[in-house]
Prior knowledge:
Shape: globular
Strand content: over 45%
Order of helices and strands: EEEEEEEEEEEEEEEEEEEEE
Amino acid sequence: MKKFIYFLMTAAFTGMFSISYGAIKITPTILELDTTGVKGNYLTSSFSVQGGENETIRFKVYPEYFKISQAGTMDILEQTEAQDSLIKNARFVPNEFTLQNGNIQKVRLTIADVNSLPDGESRMVLFLEDVAAKELFLPSGSKNVQTKLIVKTRVGIPVYVDKGHFVKCAKIEQFDIQQSDKDINLALKILSEGNSKVRCSGKAQIIRNKKLIGEYPIKNTVAGAKSFLITNEQIPLNDIKENGDYTLRLILNYNDEKGRLKNIIKENKFSINREEGVNVI
Length: 281
């Protein structure tokens, strides 16, 4: 008699672009709304879900509240009465549907009674979860044990609403360089001072004697409203050919509440000695 080992796999996706898991595609994968110019007491939006051409899958839709963690990830908080939760205002149709033969299903969202929301950002995530779990049998290396993998797909679409007087403002509170043999680790603490999240991107430059030695992109990050973000970046040193003193310049970009591009520039100095390694000045 064979024994079965069961696993439950839940996949949750969030991001800025279209994604696919297997043959499932969501467009867009994030909804960002604001009440500027809204005449009624509600907001509307939608997203599309598409399955594979030869696949049938049934989804249920449900909301949950979340906060953005200090690592820029989504922290789900169940059964919360937070004032900045959109769950009590959210109406969406359909709340359950079946995808067949590559057809597209549009899910329509209404945020009702927006006047009751606090100024600043409110949020939730709409999860699409398949109703029927899939079973996969995997080899275990033993004749008496068979591994059964139970896979449930859960796709998360974050929803943000900015209302009234909302502010997006960021600054670099900490900018440290940590030594390594082949690269330098850029440790950042980004402070979000406003009442709405800030999406940050940018680049790091290595400069010597006013000459650009190398330029490297900084990964896109999100700092939650009235919170901060801790992030690390590896900056390679392969473009540096000579010993000496260098400047690491960080140029961080974000858009404020009016959509204007803002730049934050910070610099730190370090020295290179191929025999001794990297020295922070």
